[in-house]
Write a structure and sequence with these properties.
This protein is an alpha/beta fold and 446 residues long. It has helices at residues 19-35, 41-60, 63-73, 76-81, 89-98, 111-123, 140-149, 168-176, 193-196, 212-224, 250-256, 261-267, 284-299, 308-316, 322-336, 355-361, 381-403, 408-415, 419-428, 440-444; strands at 130-133, 158-162, 177-178, 190-191, 201-205, 226-228, 235-237, 241-246, 270-273, 305-306, 340-341, 364-366, 370-372. It has 3 domains: 19-81, no CATH class; 89-275, Rossmann fold (3-Layer(aba) Sandwich), CATH 3.40.50; 279-444, Helicase, Ruva Protein, domain 3. A hairpin with a 6-residue loop joins strand 6 (226-228) and strand 7 (235-237). The protein binds adenosine-5'-triphosphate and magnesium ion. Adenosine-5'-triphosphate binds at residues 105-108, 134, 136-142, 247, 323-324, 327.
C-alpha cells in the first residue's frame, strides 16, 4: 500500500514549513487512513510517527505565522478578510489604556487620531524632537501635553511658547533670557523659556511664525544643547525636550525659503499629523454630548437638550475651527439656552438661513461648507411640503418672539391669533419663549 511520504518527517521544524503545506500533508494522511482496508502493525507505526511529526510542525508555527501564511497562499483578496491581527479602533484605544497610556483628556476613537496617539506613545519616552501639525483647533497643544505626560520628564516643567506672539526684537530674550543692561529696559538678569524648561519639555507653538533669525538660533540649541543669554558670554547647557507645532506646511515653506530646511528636518524627527474634525465626523455626536456635559458641569446647570434641527446642524456643520469650535459652540449653547437650544442660540454668522431660502435651494447652505437637507431629502413631495411648511412656521414664530422680546401675549396680539393657539404652536416646535427674553438681543448681536 502506498503511504504518505513526508519529505520533512525527520527534519526539525524550519521556517520553510507553511500552514498551507501542513494542511496538505494532513489531508494526504487522512485520505491514506480512509482508503486503507486493513493496516499492518508497521504501517500503523509509520502513520503514527508521521502524525506526531505533523503535530510538532503545526505547533512550531506561531498563531500569527499561520494566518499570514494561509492568507498569502490564498491570494491578496483574502488577506483583508483574514486579518485577525488588525484591531478595531476600540481595541486600539483599549490596548493603549492597558499599557497605562495617559490621554490627558484626548477624546476619540478615529483611526487617524489613534495613529497619532500610538506614535506619541512610542516617541514620549525618547528625547527625540516631535513636530505636530494640523489645522487650528485640532488639539496640537493637547498632544504636546500627552507626549510630555507619557515621558520620563512628566514631573518636570512643561513650558509653552507661542512663537507667533513674540515681537522679533524680544524673541531672543524671551527664548534665551538676557543679562542686566543688555538692552534698554533690561533692568535685571532674566532667564528665558529654554532655561525654565531645563529637564522638562518646551512646546514651541506656531513654529512656522518664527522669523529666520530666530530659526538660526533655535537650530544652534538643537545642535549644541546650549544657550547664551542676550548680552552674556556665558554658555549655559540646557537639557530640554522640544515639541513644536504648526498649522502651516513647513515642507512647502522650506521649499519657498521662508523656513530653514535644516531646522525642519531637525524638528520633525517624529512627525505627527492631527486629523481635522471633518475627517472624523463619526465622532461628532460623542463630542457634542461630551462637551455638552462638560459645559453643564462648568456652568453648574443641567445639560442642554437640542432641538432635532439643531442636532442635525451640529452633525453636518463643517467646523473650520475644529474641536475648539465645537467645544466653544457647546459652551455657548449651554450658556444662552434655557432647557433646549435651537438655531437662535448659534452665532449669527453660522446660523442657517430662514426657511424660505432653504426651500428655494432645496437645503440650507451653511457656513463651514455643510449642507442640511431636511427638505431636500424628504422621501416624497408631500413630505417635502410639510417639512418646508414646518420650517417656515418655526422661523416665523422665532422671528416674532425675537421682535417682542419673548412675550407670548404680545406675539399673539401681533399675529392676531389666540394666545393658547400660539402656545400650542410653540410647544409643537419645542420653542421656549423664555429663551428669547434675556438673550435675544445679545444673540443677535444687536
Ligand atoms: N481629541 C480631543 N479630545 C478632547 N478635547 C480636545 C481634543 N482635541 C482638542 N481638544 C480640545 O480642543 C481645544 C483646542 O485644542 P488645542 O488648543 O490643543 O488645539 P490647537 O491645535 O493647539 O489649536 P491652535 O492651532 O488654534 O492653537 C482644547 O480645549 C482642547 O482641550
Ligand atoms: Mg495651539
Amino acid at each position: 500500500m502506498k503511504l504518505y511520504n513526508p519529505t520533512s518527517s525527520t527534519s526539525p521544524v524550519t521556517s520553510s514549513v507553511t500552514f498551507a503545506g501542513l494542511i496538505e500533508k494532513i489531508e494526504i494522511l487522512r485520505s491514506t487512513l480512509r482508503w486503507s482496508s486493513r493496516l499492518e502493525r508497521p504501517e500503523i507505526e509509520k502513520l503514527l510517527k508521521q502524525a506526531t511529526t505533523l503535530r510538532d510542525e503545526v505547533m512550531g508555527l506561531s498563531h500569527k505565522e499561520r494566518f499570514v501564511a494561509a492568507a498569502s497562499a490564498t491570494g491578496e483578496a483574502e488577506v483583508a478578510e483574514v486579518e485577525p491581527v488588525e484591531m478595531s479602533s476600540r481595541e486600539r484605544r483599549q490596548a493603549l489604556m492597558e499599557r497605562s497610556f495617559i490621554f490627558e483628556g484626548t477624546f476619540g476613537d478615529n483611526p487617524k487620531l489613534l495613529e497619532a496617539l500610538e506614535i506619541a506613545e512610542k516617541a514620549s519616552p525618547t528625547d527625540l524632537p516631535v513636530l505636530i501639525d494640523g489645522e487650528s483647533g485640532t488639539g496640537k497643544e493637547l498632544m504636546a501635553k500627552v507626549i510630555h505626560a507619557n515621558g520620563s520628564r512628566t514631573d518636570k516643567p512643561f513650558i509653552s511658547v507661542n512663537c507667533g506672539a513674540i515681537p522679533d526684537s524680544l524673541l531672543e530674550s524671551e527664548l534665551f533670557g538676557h543679562k542686566k543692561g543688555a538692552f534698554t529696559g533690561a533692568a535685571n538678569d532674566r532667564r528665558g523659556k529654554f532655561e525654565s524648561a531645563h529637564t522638562g519639555t518646551i512646546f514651541l507653538d506656531e513654529i512656522g511664525e518664527l522669523p529666520l533669525t530666530g530659526q538660526v538660533k533655535l537650530l544652534r540649541v538643537l545642535e549644541a544643547h546650549e544657550i547664551q543669554r542676550v548680552g552674556s558670554d556665558e554658555v549655559i547647557a540646557v537639557d530640554t525636550r522640544i515639541v513644536a507645532a504648526t498649522n502651516k506646511d513647513l515642507r512647502k515653506m522650506s521649499e519657498e525659503g521662508t523656513f530653514r530646511e535644516d531646522l525642519f528636518y531637525r524638528l520633525s524627527v517624529i512627525h505627527v499629523t492631527l486629523p481635522a474634525l471633518r475627517e472624523r465626523r463619526d465622532e461628532i455626536p460623542l463630542l457634542v454630548s461630551y462637551f455638552g456635559d462638560e459645559a453643564a458641569g462648568m456652568l453648574k446647570r443641567r445639560p442642554i437638550k437640542l432641538t432635532p434641527r439643531l442636532r442635525d446642524f451640529l452633525l453636518h456643520y463643517g467646523y473650520p475651527g475644529n474641536i475648539r469650535e465645537l467645544r466653544n459652540l457647546m459652551y455657548r449653547l449651554s450658556c444662552l439656552a434655557g432647557d433646549t437650544a435651537d438655531f437662535v442660540h448659534l452665532p449669527q454668522d453660522i446660523r442657517p438661513k430662514p426657511a424660505g431660502l432653504q426651500a428655494a435651494t432645496g437645503g440650507t447652505a451653511l457656513p463651514g461648507k455643510a449642507i442640511v437637507t431636511d427638505i431636500g431629502t424628504a422621501p416624497s413631495l408631500s413630505e417635502a411640503k410639510r417639512a418646508a411648511s414646518d420650517e417656515a412656521e418655526r422661523a416665523f414664530l422665532e422671528r416674532g418672539l425675537q421682535e417682542v422680546g419673548g412675550t407670548v401675549a404680545e406675539l399673539a396680539r401681533r399675529f392676531d391669533m389666540n394666545r393658547s393657539h400660539v402656545q400650542m404652536l410653540l410647544k409643537k416646535h419645542g420653542i421656549h419663549s423664555k429663551d428669547f427674553r434675556n438673550n435675544s438681543r445679545q444673540v443677535e448681536g444687536k
